[in-house]
Design brief:
Methyltransferase required for the conversion of demethylmenaquinol (DMKH2) to menaquinol (MKH2). The protein is α/β, with parallel strands linked by helices. The chain has nine helices and seven strands; from the N terminus they run αααβαβαββαβαααββ. α2 runs antiparallel to α7 and α7 runs antiparallel to α8.
């Protein structure tokens, strides 16, 4: 897959992530100029996992994003549809309950989790609205969702520079550090095709989430969207 089409085929996207699993975390740190670690910390703070809670980390990859929830004392389930990512994660953290799952058909019971989170994976789902509805289904009433995703810089000069970086600088860098540089061409295109902050907020509301709000990181290059499942 090399084009960010709207009819993403799950098996193709999963295969793409299988190919980059071994060096995925390192590549992200390089391509984000070190910002990826700050974004993960912001996600952990926003989720605010607590001891005894159950947290679903969807699109968890190798579970790098899951570790802060575990450290907070929450029972955390890293879930991903890339078996390559899950295998890599299991080698690193054999004690974690890695689970294979499609975001549009999650293998969990209704109301199973206190919090659900999805970082940098929603734009790769074939049916975004179905995924948001599934996250709503598996969350307890009163529970929360946190979506961290690339978004649209709010300052025009930054937006211009960022767009140039995505399509001109990112692919050559990816060729140096990634095992599958074509995957990062797709990822760059998928970022450009993604809706802006209000657009994603509206889709969360349509899926049943209440009190939806967002916070921009790095000038809006990334946005954190949070919502709550009504108690009744």
């Amino acid at each position: 897959m090399t084009r960010a089409t709207l009819d993403k085929k799950p098996h193709e996207v999963a295969a793409m992530f299988d190919d980059v699993a071994a060096r995925y975390d390192l590549t992200n740190d390089v391509l984000s100029l070190g910002q990826a670690r700050l974004w993960r910390r912001a996600v952990a703070d926003a989720v605010d996992a607590r001891p005894g809670e159950r947290v679903l980390d969807l699109a968890a990859g190798t579970a790098t994003s899951s570790l802060p929830f575990v450290e907070a004392g929450a029972f955390t389930v890293p879930c991903d549809f890339s078996l390559g990512m899950l295998r890599e994660g299991k080698q690193r953290h054999p004690w974690m309950p890695f689970t294979a799952g499609d975001a549009t058909r999650l293998p969990f019971a209704d109301g199973a989790f206190d919090a659900v989170t999805l970082s940098f994976g929603l734009r790769n789902v074939s049916d975004v609205d179905a995924a948001l509805a599934e996250l709503h289904r598996v969350t307890k009433p009163g529970g929360r969702v946190l979506v961290c995703e690339f978004s649209h810089p709010t300052w025009t000069p930054l937006r211009t520079v960022y767009s140039e970086y995505l399509m001109r600088a990112l692919p050559p860098i990816a060729r140096r550090v990634s095992s599958s540089p074509d995957a990062y061409v797709y990822l760059a295109e998928s970022i450009r095709e993604w809706p802006d902050q209000p657009g994603l907020a509206a889709r969360l509301q349509d899926a049943g989430w209440a009190r939806v709000a967002w916070r921009n990181l790095t000038g809006g290059i990334v946005a954190l969207h949070r919502g709550f499942k009504p108690r009744s």
